[in-house]
Prior knowledge:
385 residues; alpha+beta; 5-stranded antiparallel beta sheet; 12 helices; binds flavin mononucleotide
Amino acid sequence: MLRFLTAGESHGPGLVTIVEGLPRGLEVSQDRITAELARRRMGYGRGKRMAIERDQIEILGGIRHGETLGSPVSVLIRNTEWPRWSEEMSPEPAGSKKQVTRPRPGHADLAGMLKYGTDDARDILERASARETAARTVAGILSKILLETVGVKVISHVISIGAVRSEGSPPGPGDTDAIDDSPVRCLDRTAETAMIEAIEEAKEQRDTLGGIFEVLAFGVPPGIGSHVHYDRKLDGLLAGAIMSIPAIKGVEVGDGFEVASLPGSESHDEIVLGAAGLARPTNRAGGTEGGMSNGETIRVRAAMKPISTLMRPLRTVDMTTGEPAEAVRERSDVCAVPAAAVVGEQMVAFVLAAEFQRKFGGDSVDELLAAVDRYRTGLNRRPAR
Length: 385
Ligand SMILES: Cc1cc2nc3c(=O)[nH]c(=O)nc-3n(C[C@H](O)[C@H](O)[C@H](O)COP(=O)(O)O)c2cc1C
């Protein structure tokens, strides 16, 4: 079973990821992890932190001479700004100005204060912060490396920011660099310009913006996931993983919400015989049927709400005085949809890698590959002709 845990706070000394269940023999370099972490930092509209901080990583275990050992992989990401923060975040007496007592509507602050019985929302927001997704990126890149060995590629792109929507056609597996070259990770250049303008406008208004991104996984064979239990269904696993990303409030698989208003004749993907065997002229289902991959491209979209830390703060209540107040202002992003899309890639990659491991097993990459090859060969014989 492939699983991972992360630990660490946003302004602490660092974050740790432990990934268990990877086979022996995956090639993993420190540079590859660092490059993926850099992708998560991208995007027009990010806060100052992205400019000043670097992700400094240290592999603590599970990798030797550039290859996984089959033991848990552990990676430490140091917060390079920690020396400065350790002073800024030093303990303060109750009632001090450094305490965060004015919870932000839309953040974890109030629910966490009530749940854990604290008047200092910093105890909550330090862990609720999306900084944690840097640690997930480690699990994500390791998953991607596993998927690459079995011919699967996961990419993401931004569909909309605020009211601006891309009208471009869906990208292909080779488009990652071109997408990453866009400041908003969108291939439609007209939409890209309008998205940047929208972010600038929001910033000027001291407001924030959300949007929609899409994750695509190419090369997934049919039969990943299962129909037999609620907690083994691939669409459910993907939706849960994407929804766990901070600020994601909606997930759709394939044409999702759109097909709810269409007749059945326009909602499914007919099965035909193509030159290479079974084929689907359309992919409205987004690559899953009955909780299993069906051999088409996996396609998942996520709706991200606007960032809840506003420079024009919303109304709240000071939890120490009980008086009406303005919500606290933290250093913050105006829009983080491009970065959230990268995290979406990581989560989809993790779910797929875990399901590959569950179906094909193997303590070493060679064992995994042999099982996948055998399965793919069997699929090529269907239907019997
Ligand atoms: C990549 C990324 C960056 C984010 N940056 C910020 C930010 O700078 N400020 C903020 O208030 N929220 C930010 N968020 C969203 C919060 O982390 C999130 O809204 C909060 O933890 C509450 O969780 P919920 O929105 O899922 O309910 C970001 C989310 C992601 C995915």
